[in-house]
TrEMBL record:
Chain's gene name: Aoc3_1
GO BP annotations listed: amine metabolic process
Species annotation: Smutsornis africanus (Double-banded courser)
PTM sites of type 2',4',5'-topaquinone: 463
GO molecular function terms noted in the UniProt entry: copper ion binding; primary methylamine oxidase activity; quinone binding
Protein name: Amine oxidase
Lineage, broadest ranks: Eukaryota, Metazoa, Chordata, Craniata, Vertebrata
Domain Copper amine oxidase catalytic: 305-708
Enzyme class: oxidoreductase
Gene3D superfamilies tied to this protein: 3.10.450.40, Copper amine oxidase, catalytic domain (2.70.98.20)
PANTHER family reported for this sequence: COPPER AMINE OXIDASE (PTHR10638), RETINA-SPECIFIC COPPER AMINE OXIDASE (PTHR10638:SF4)
């Protein structure tokens, strides 16, 4: 063999041996952890955001102790209280007046006293009522003052109070007692004795102020799955308005299109063969409609988002900062997520951004479904924001924050990990351009669309609402809500499909609308703003270079709205495509520094004004209404509206009294929503795809150029550069593949507080 050939073979053999040794040495070695680089730290003394902070468990407990010792009345724990008792219904933070807060935040003024708002049900009084007290100062309360008349113009009638868990339990006991009066019917229709049937509330509860009579819908239950898709056709009307439970009564029974005075009458009709019974087999766990249990074994895990050098945002107490953004966050037990003092590059853009209400309004040919208008704030949007599932509800490596509340108990509760914060890569450029102009230059420039997300998920009986607040590098704020969870359903009978689609053997997916209301207190370049609109029109002009021809030329029509009446835009009607909150100062190019409100919604039709309960949800008349901010108009609705929508405690329509809105402190009230006609693909759950709505707050001439040009994530390289060089682009400086994220173990404790 030729010597040259031998040498070549020897070199190849040595190279092969070396490669095998490397593989053997590294096989089984765990990847090294990614080196975390902490974000730039804030001023450790900057705790101004605590002026908005939710109450701590210790503060909640202090308020309860103070009320017990200083009201001079006997209080029963709300978890055990009967309607004829006095109890503490809830305690939340009392956010100070805006003027006081701004003096503290911006003017070097004193910190406002920290106070709580306590709601009490006084059933053991000559005139039962709901009373609200402001209690302070915290952490050691020394005073309380009744603010009920100041807020509502009078005492809140007792019948307006939300239904407590104890009241529902007592109603359930009554219904179970009544069901025992129809044993033969229940066996025949449902293979049940009644004790295994789920009972679902509806609302509101009657036809006029003072009523407290509720239709309850009965369903088959199967452990481990939602009962909402298994109605048995039986519904009962319970009058629970009396202070004494012994006087509560079952007023009416509905079954399969027929009404009866009592369960005894229903049983008699069955025994006498005067009743058409639809015999429903008790569902089995392996075949129940709507089961969410996996049908296939787990596959390989999907993509996992992680942060190579740790989070690039920073959280201190109730404040998060991220690439020029600063946001103070919290959770109202009733109305849900609330954000304050939203700043970008040190300038306040929004003073308050808060959820106000979530309405679900149903149609059906069954009494429970046709009468249902859920005002979810009265049930507790924030209170029922439970623990989030790591890696599904939010990215695995998100930061999870606990929230505390006190409602229907004198013991504070904690929903652990119920709010998540994370940086999200949208896998989409925020902006980009590829230049192929060979005559000038060839280059690429762009920026990834990364944003900070604050998220919570509320489970309100059958529905789950995903609340997102997103903050972009362009200075834009995006607010979005997705609906998922189980649809509510009625028993399919008669002309049921006039009100939805059949989704099971005896199940009608009932049509409904979701309308969501938000409060946005914008402070654009200062507290005083005006409202400006811009839209397009066409004008017919002679062609300047060929006068015998004409051209339809679009032009910009600008208008400043002067009064609230002009700024109240009815739902589902055209509104100006550009609507902006404008400050008094111009940008570099002479235009008012502004933020634009851009709504993305597919709302259904608002309840007609002829309905006697329409005024209780009159906020739904408008896709956008802009009013002057008033301390006495803090919210667009009230938890008391649900159980007395005929004489609502708060009427949003009354906020619009045609005051001037030029150079004033203004609030945008925004309604988003969609009509949902359930269909087969809503089983087992409604999917989030296509079921998301929201709005944007976008800078409009607020800056002199897109602020994202200052992002350290910007990418630029030309044809003359080595794009793979680390100095040319940060994408070439990613950590080696051997870097592994530090993933915490998967745990879940969301069932603990149920």
């Amino acid at each position: 063999m030729h010597m040259k050939t031998v040498l070549i073979l020897l070199v190849l053999a040595l190279a092969t041996i070396f490669a095998l040794v490397c593989v053997l040495l590294t096989r089984g070695r765990a990847p090294g952890p990614c080196q975390h680089q902490p974000p730039e730290q804030e001023d450790p003394d900057d705790v101004q955001s605590l002026v908005f902070a939710d109450l701590t468990p210790e503060e909640l407990a202090q308020v309860v102790r103070y009320l017990r010792g200083n009201l001079g009345v006997q209080l029963v724990d709300a978890s055990r209280a009967k309607p004829s008792d006095n109890c503490i219904a809830s305690v939340d933070v009392q956010v100070p007046a805006k003027a006081e807060v701004l003096r503290f935040l911006d003017g070097g003024g004193p910190r406002p006293p920290r106070e709580a708002l306590a709601v009490l049900y006084f059933g053991n009084q000559p005139e039962p009522n709901v009373t609200e007290y402001v209690v302070g100062p915290l952490p050691t309360p020394a005073y309380h003052r009744d603010v009920t008349v100041q807020k509502y113009g009078g005492k809140v009638p007792y019948h307006r109070r939300p239904v407590t868990g104890k009241e529902y339990a007592d109603i359930n006991t009554l219904i179970q007692r009544e069901l025992r009066k129809a044993p033969h019917f229940l066996t025949a229709c449902c293979e049940s004795d009644g004790t295994d049937l789920a009972i679902l509330t509806t609302a509101p509860r009657g036809f006029k102020s003072g009523d407290r009579a509720t239709w309850f819908v009965l369903f088959h239950t199967v452990a481990g799955t939602g009962y909402y898709l298994s109605p048995v056709g039986l519904e009962v009307l319970v009058d629970h308005g009396a202070l004494h439970i012994s006087r509560w009564q079952l007023r009416k029974v509905f079954y399969n299109g027929q009404y009866f005075a009592s369960m005894g009458d229903l049983e008699d009709a069955f025994v006498s063969n005067l009743l058409e019974v639809v015999r429903i087999t008790k569902p089995q766990a392996e075949a129940v409609l709507g089961s969410m249990k996996p049908r296939r074994p787990p596959g390989s895990p999907g993509p996992l988002q992680y942060e190579p050098q740790g989070p690039r945002y920073s959280i201190r107490d109730n404040r998060v900062t991220f690439q020029g953004w600063s946001i103070t966050f919290g959770m109202n037990p009733n109305t849900g997520p609330r954000l304050f003092d939203i700043r970008f590059r040190g300038e306040r853009i929004v003073y308050e951004l808060s959820l106000q209400e979530a309405l679900a309004l149903y149609g059906s040919n069954c009494p429970g479904g046709m009468s249902t208008r859920y005002f979810d704030g009265s049930f507790g949007i924030g209170r029922f924001a439970y623990e989030l599932v790591r890696g599904l509800d939010c990215p695995y490596t998100a930061t999870y924050v606990e929230r505390h509340y006190l409602a229907e108990s004198e013991t504070p509760k904690t929903n652990q990990n119920s709010l998540c914060i994370f940086e999200h890569d949208a896998a989409l450029p925020l902006r980009r351009h590829f230049s192929d102009s060979h005559s000038y230059s060839v280059y690429y420039g762009g920026l990834r669309k990364n944003m900070l997300v604050i998220r919570a998920v509320s489970t309100l009986i059958n529905y789950d609402y995903i609340w997102d607040f997103m903050f972009h590098g362009s200075g834009a704020v995006e607010v979005r809500v997705h609906a998922t969870g189980y649809i509510s359903s009625s028993f399919l009978h008669g002309q049921g499909t006039d009100y939805g689609n059949r989704v099971g053997p005896h199940t009608l997916g009932t049509m409904h609308l979701h309308h969501i209301h938000y409060k946005v207190d914008l402070d654009v370049d200062g507290q005083l703003n005006s409202l400006e609109t811009q839209d397009m029109e066409y004008e017919l002009v002679k062609d300047p270079w060929s006068m015998q021809h004409t051209i339809k030329r679009p032009y910009l029509r600008r208008e400043r709205l002067e009064r609230e009446g002009q700024a109240a835009f009815p739902l589902n009607t055209p509104m100006p495509r550009y609507l902006s909150f404008a400050g008094s100062k111009p940008n570099k190019w002479g235009h008012p520094r502004s933020y634009r409100v851009q709504i993305v919604s597919f709302a259904g039709e608002h309840l007609p004004a002829s309905s006697p309960m329409e005024r209780s949800i009159s906020w739904g008349r408008y896709q956008l209404a802009v009013t002057r901010r008033k301390e006495e108009e803090p919210t667009s609705t009230s938890v008391y509206n649900q159980n007395d929508p005929w004489t609502p405690t708060v009427v949003f329509a009354d906020f619009i009294d045609n005051e001037t809105i030029t150079n004033e402190d203004l609030v945008a009230w925004i309604t988003v929503g969609f009509l949902h006609v359930p269909h087969a693909e809503d089983v087992p759950n409604t999917v989030t795809v296509g079921n998301g709505v929201g709005f944007f707050l976008r800078p409009y001439n607020y800056f002199d150029e897109d602020p994202s040009v200052d992002s350290p994530d910007s990418v630029y390289f030309s044809s003359e550069q080595d794009a793979g060089a680390c100095g040319a682009t940060p994408l070439a400086c990613l950590p080696p593949a051997a870097c592994a994220p530090r993933l915490p173990p998967f745990r879940y404790g969301g069932f603990l507080n149920l």
